[in-house]
Design brief:
With about 280 residues, this protein is mainly beta. It contains three helices and 20 strands. A hairpin with a 4-residue loop joins strand 2 and strand 3. The radius of gyration is 41 Å and the shape is elongated. The protein starts with a helix and ends with a strand.
Length: about 280
Amino acid sequence: MESRQKIQISFFSFLFSFIFLTSAFAQNGTVKGSIHTSDGKPAEFVNVILKEIKKGTVTDVNGAFVLNNLKEGNYTITTSFVGLKTQERQISVFANQTLTLAFTLEENAQQLNEVVITASRSLNEKQVNIGKLPIKLMDLPQSVVTLEKDVLERQQTVRLSDAIKNINGIYLMSTTGGTQEELAGRGFAYNSSNTFKNGTRFNNAVMPEMSALERIEVMKGSNAILYGNVAAGGIINLVTKKPQFENGGELNMRIGSYGFYKPSLDIYGKFNNSEKAAYRINTT
């Protein structure tokens, strides 16, 4: 008798729970719809979100979407996709009813910010004069190394020996009273026959002024025979700064230990606004 009563109580409890849950789900509504682009094509993978409850879904390949089990109330539905204008609508959901919506999304023609593209040549693409012809470094068969102005300025080189530390195979062999430096490469000294300025031999008994240099070009090894009566270790070509057809200049001051100071001035521009004559003055 007791077991029969327990079975009846369990049955009624299950039946009550089932009726309660069914009525609870029956009180919810549904929102469904379709989304198309302005040209009438289905818009797939569009985000559809109810802002108040943070519930959402995405459209399928047919542009359709469904949101189930929504409590009765007012909502803001949002549709968004990259490249399409976002849309918002105020909707009302009622119990036991299905709300059907249709959206048409237009392309978002936002103007992009200005994009500036700059280009620069690598060292291998720049022309050098040490080959006696304006040839790109990558096209030269000789072993050539160049040091550009930005390297000389960043390292604040004072002497030529400071710059050649960036070049393997060339070294400082000796100095004379701090007023002369003798460089060497591959066992051969770089005397006045092996040092050039803008392609012309110059007397290297006096150290060159580094602030006046645009770049340093070095040709290594026996290829230096290209310049005639030279030692086989290589040659150095110092390229000085050239006049420019724009007005400008620099004023620098270097201060170091042991009372070292070195002001330098670099001025350039046009002669009387001429397009054919320009000047450049370097001094220190």
